Amino acid sequence: MIRGTGASEEERRARAALTRIIEPGDEYGGRWLRELGAVELLGRLTAQPYAPGALAGASERRIEGLRVRAASAEPERDLAAVDAVGGRFVVPGDAEWPRQLDDLGDARPVGLWVRGRPDLRRWALRSVAVVGARACTPYGAHMAADLASGLAERGWVVVSGAAFGVDGAAHRGALAVQGATVAVLACGVDAAYPRGHAGLIGRIAEQGLLVGELPPGAHPTPSRFILRNRVIAALTRGTVVVEAEYRSGSLVTARSAQRLGRYTMGVPGPATSGLSAGVHELLRGEAVLVTDAAEVAELVGDIGDLAPARRGPVLPRDLLDPVSTRVLEAIPPRGRGATGREVAHGAGTAVDEALGRLYELHSLGFVERHGDRWELAAGATHRPNARRGGA
Predict the structure, then answer these.
(1) How much is the pTM?
(2) Which fold has domain 316-386?
């Protein structure tokens, strides 16, 4: 399945070959690609014999390693393999290419292998990354799923890495509400990694998108996981981190987002939790604290995407005017009562005004009258923080 015809087929094949030769995020390779173009770069890597100095900036030993890879690259086979699983290879110049990836400069992907029906560029325009610890707590899993489902219900695309823990919870949260989700993989889009997420990755391929820099059949390595995170950061409007230790790939994503000028957000956890220590360190810097999808949408969304105002419950006595409040607070606790003159003295007002307020409070159910004395009605006890001078 081919979508977008911005690049020539010769360039598309060359870039497909280069994804087997150049590692993701290789800035030397990116510079050569920018200066020479994909076809010329591939030609220099496969030339027999190699012309010394044809590729400046790298050692001859390193170039020899790239040439070994180039000799075994079969782009037609890889393009056929991705087509067989309903995928495609998207390159710069295609209508589907997310142009925000260009912010990565020479670390920009050579191309993206994509599996799934939706248009990647359109989805990426309104997307948020939700990432975090693999060995997350139940709290972390709950927050990731809740954030993802809330964002999906608001029309946002949830992007993550399909790993165990927070990533998986985020994808499931979006899928649970029939929302949009994208998994950025550190392996080929025809593979399921981790194997324990084979079912989840299959659902994402059906309902959302699988995206990767590596060609079909490529396997993940620790460095590829780290480098994958820059794509997550660049692809989205902002990154939310839910639980992360001090040494965490999720923090790499967040810091990449910060360098790219994207929004960086963190969900706080217990101060004693090592799994939240990295998030809290982010929050001590330029990251923004968020607790739900509405707060995320307010930050990354358009004008008018405001989170609801947060406050405690409004009690009936909160609606009283200041004088009536002072009169009510001047009445002693239940069982003692006070005369109108005593209430006026305690409230700092005239007796006539105090009596007028007492009758109003009586009609509202706040006070009771017993002869010439006034008492608090049942349920109208003083709140500790309402007393003048109280904490």
Answers:
(1) 0.82
(2) Arc Repressor Mutant, subunit A (1.10.10)
Q: What is the CATH number of domain 116-300?
A: 3.40.50.450
The answer for residues whose C-beta is within 8 angstroms of residue 310's C-beta and 6 or more apart is: none
Contact by Cβ (8 Å): 27, 54:
no
C-alpha to C-alpha distance for 236 and 161, rounded to whole angstroms = 13
Q: Per the omega criterion (within 30 degrees of 0), is the bond before 194 cis?
A: yes
Q: What are phi and psi of 137, to 5 degrees?
A: -85, 165
What is the distance in angstroms between the CA of the first residue and the CA of the last residue of the chain? 68
Q: From first to last of its 391 residues, what are the pLDDT tens digits of the chain?
A: 445 457 899 999 999 999 999 999 999 999 999 999 999 999 999 998 888 888 988 888 999 999 999 999 999 999 999 999 999 999 999 999 999 999 999 999 999 999 999 999 999 999 999 999 999 999 999 999 999 999 999 999 999 999 999 999 999 999 999 999 999 999 999 999 999 999 999 999 999 999 999 999 999 999 999 999 999 999 999 999 999 999 899 999 999 999 999 999 999 999 999 999 999 999 999 899 999 999 999 999 875 566 677 777 777 888 899 999 999 999 988 777 899 999 999 999 999 999 999 999 999 889 899 888 999 987 765 554 433 333 3
Amino acid occupying residue 107: A
Sequence spans of domains, the chain: 17-99, 116-300, 316-386
The CA-atom distances, in angstroms, between 322 and each of 23, 78, 325, 352, 382 are 69, 75, 5, 17, 15
